[in-house]
Amino acid sequence: TPVRLGDYRRPAWSVDAIELDVDLGIDATEVSSRLVLRSDTGQSAPLRLNGEGLELLALALDGQALDAHAFRYEGGVLEVDGVRDGSVLETRVRVQPAANTALEGLYLSGSREHGFLLTQCEAEGFRRITFFPDRPDVLARFTVTLRADRQRFPVLLAGGNPTGVGELPDGRHWARFVDPHPKPCYLFALVAGRLENITRDYVTADGRAVKIVIWSEANVIDRCHYALDAVERSMRWDEHTYGRNYDLDVFHVVATHDFNMGAMENKGLNIFNAKYLLADPDSSTDDEYRAVEAVVAHEYFHNWTGNRVTCRDWFQLSLKEGLTVFREQQFSADMNSVPLKRIEDVALLRRTQFPEDAGPLAHPVRPAEYREINNFYTATVYEKGSELVRMLAGRLGQEGFRRGMELYFQRNDGQAATIEDFLGALGDANAIDLKPYLAWYAQAGTPRLHAKSEYDAVAREYTLTLSQQTRPTPGQPEKVPVPIPVKLSLFDRDGRILPLRMDGEEKADGAERVVVLHKAAQRFVFKDVDAPPVPSLLRDFSAPVVLEYDYTPAELALLLTHDPDGFNRWEAGQQLALLAFDTLNDSVDSAACKAWCEALAALFEDRQLDDALLADLLTPPGEIELADRQSEVDPSRIHAQRQVLQQRLAAHMGADALLARYRDLSAHASQPLDAASQARRRLRRRVLELFALLNPERAHALAATQYETALGMTDRLAALGVLVRDRAPQAAAALAHFRDRYADNPLALDKWFTVQAQVPGEPALAIVATLERDPAFTLKNPNRARSLLGAFASTNPSGFHRTDGAGYQLLGERLVQLDALNPQIAARLATAFNGWQRLEPMRRVVARRALETLVQRQGLSPNLSEIIGNVLQH
Ligand code: ARG
Ligand code: ZN
């Protein structure tokens, strides 16, 4: 039965304090807990604690061992009679870390001999460690004592401040941690094993001396320096931007190769998937460096948006995730480039969230119900959630938003809050009613924003009519209008930006404006307009909507060429590429295709333009985005047509120009990280890819040389990608070399699997099947499973969606195997089936067959069944 938002009740019992005593062992760990209980309702409701798969060894209430009839433990709940306000409940349980393949609760990372123990509790993993009210609105003071063999577990860590260590008999030792900040149990963490560290001393703006410590296994500790710098940058940035200081004496960060998600913000003890913590030029690409910086910042920022202010219940997940993604986006933009970051984030939203919102898995940013909360760590909750915060921030302006955030922290510090608390604080601090924005949180589906222009030459008036419509989503047939802020400018036909005077205003004020569409439709009138202007709409992607406006190719080309803002320029180029794509059938170039190619060819010669922006301008929307606009999707055809589109572009630019630019970009000495070098590498890769469409043989020779001479992973992987995707004769040798060179580097090896899983079309399936037999392949490691199966099913549409259904069959079989090991990962991979209803009929039939086979399997986890059931709309 699903949990419903409307059924929320305050907890009958809360926990003032918890003392945990953990006696650590690889096969068996014993956890003793002492809870001081508080009755919140005043009534003597029975105490109900969550506990999953716990072997109960002892149970005592107020010092008395409990009789078998005084408690019941079944169905994941321990019910205890006779508890009073102030009672102390003591439990002792045994858990089995090494047998835990779900990587939730306490588990082993790495081998039994050399690996280490760690925990993952969000969302509901703490109940696999001990009995507790496992809900985020129960905040308790944690005291944690770890005991273990000193040889096997020299390092013992838990969240909070360290308060003592000591020796025990038989070569054992102990360490204690006290967290002064009450926290929900999902933020608890411990780590124990043989780990190395690097540290930095940091003093917060408000004067606290903090030790930042990054921990990893010995062989990768020298790849943690970039992350350490990123922690420090994040701390400084949050002090400057939001006045938020770190609040413990130590900040620990740990890397593991065995992790279900990206990372976790456990209080004082963040734990990271190694993929988002380790970085070095030889094994990480530029994109990966930025991802490390972004995830480090994201987890650190959670200390205030998530930990100090946490969520009342899991329906409010976006309260911390959407807000923290937004804060990370601001930070990354500040550290790197504002337009490039926005391009990256909007492209991600369109590639991941829009398809989610348009299919059977659509759900609101604040879902109204769920069965398995782990299935709701989605692009909608994270990425669309961030877009909603961005709209609010835009509405309030930089200072207003900061004021609102101050009030939010002031009111909710130490509390478990709701989305209403957030909007309330932002609004009250600015005397603005933000309640209308709640509709965005409650309603699934991407709104379509329709825009229409009218020009009155006599009155010199330009009228923009905006209207909105959101299509039905599962369980939500009726939609209401939401407030849509539309940032806009007007350009004249020479590409000059016009001053704006709206109806009712005395004089023009600025050249960029935000108009807000509150209703189903509204008109906005602009005065003193001498000729029909070209509107630039939804600038900076001011709302997460699909814009429908009848641009001519010439208008989009004008914006692509003249808009001073990099993001808007890119967006105009994307829209123009879509027009070109839609008119591609002709044997001659359509007007749109011509306009797109000509504008880009001209920009290619503009040496003022940033190389990285140029690389992005030269990249048309991806295959997933192209499919999202069609009703009968044929992924092979989309792949082929996108190739044709890029070929036209390459032909227009000319082989000579491309080759000359490639040479030019190759001539520069490559520096590891400065922005200009990264930009050159990005453009170099794009130019090589385009050149390969014109002269494959020559391009493959260049790629082979680039592979051999590359100084870092960015250039090496770019070259490998070209060779492998084109199935060039040089690919085999390069792949063999890479496999060998990185045999002991799992993160690099993941890329070796991925680049092959992404070979387009027919050959992909056989490649994947072969790679599954590589000794380095395993379903037990989430990164490895994702690097092959996830890359194949979720990022290679023309390879996965075969008319014979063999891609679906392969995924279906692996999902069943994976589900028995790790339900979270199985459920996540299963979302690759999203959108099957919109495939062309042949694929639709075989996809349905694969899904129906799956849904009939007995014993699937709740995680996987929920996804498969929803995808099938059962
Ligand atoms: N709170 C983490 C983050 O976004 C994600 C952890 C989610 N884990 C899970 N098993 N659902 O930073
Ligand atoms: Zn997060």
Automatic annotation (TrEMBL):
One of its GO terms (molecular function) is alanyl aminopeptidase activity. Belongs to the peptidase M1 family. It catalyses: Release of an N-terminal amino acid, Xaa-|-Yaa- from a peptide, amide or arylamide. Xaa is preferably Ala, but may be most amino acids including Pro (slow action). When a terminal hydrophobic residue is followed by a prolyl residue, the two may be released as an intact Xaa-Pro dipeptide. Keywords: Aminopeptidase, Hydrolase, Metal-binding, Metalloprotease, Protease, Zinc. The keyword Transmembrane helix does not apply. InterPro entries: Aminopeptidase_N-like_N, Aminopeptidase_N-like_N_sf, PepN_Ig-like_sf, Peptidase_M1, Peptidase_M1_dom, Peptidase_M1_pepN, Peptidase_M1_pepN_C, Peptidase_M1_pepN_C_sf. Residues 445-550 form the Peptidase M1 alanyl aminopeptidase Ig-like fold domain. Signal peptide: none annotated. Its cofactor is Zn(2+). The lineage of its organism: Bacteria, Pseudomonadati, Pseudomonadota, Gammaproteobacteria, Lysobacterales. Gene3D superfamilies: 2.60.40.1840, 3.30.2010.30, Neutral Protease Domain 2, Peptidase M1, alanyl aminopeptidase, C-terminal domain, tricorn interacting facor f3 domain. Pfam families: DUF3458, DUF3458_C, Peptidase_M1, Peptidase_M1_N. This is Aminopeptidase N. The keyword Hydrolase applies. GO terms for biological process: proteolysis. PANTHER family: PUROMYCIN-SENSITIVE AMINOPEPTIDASE (PTHR46322). Residues 554-872 form the Peptidase M1 alanyl aminopeptidase C-terminal domain. Its EC number is 3.4.11.2. It comes from Dyella monticola. It is an enzyme of class 3 (hydrolase). Residues 226-435 form the Peptidase M1 membrane alanine aminopeptidase domain. Residues 100-187 form the Aminopeptidase N-like N-terminal domain.
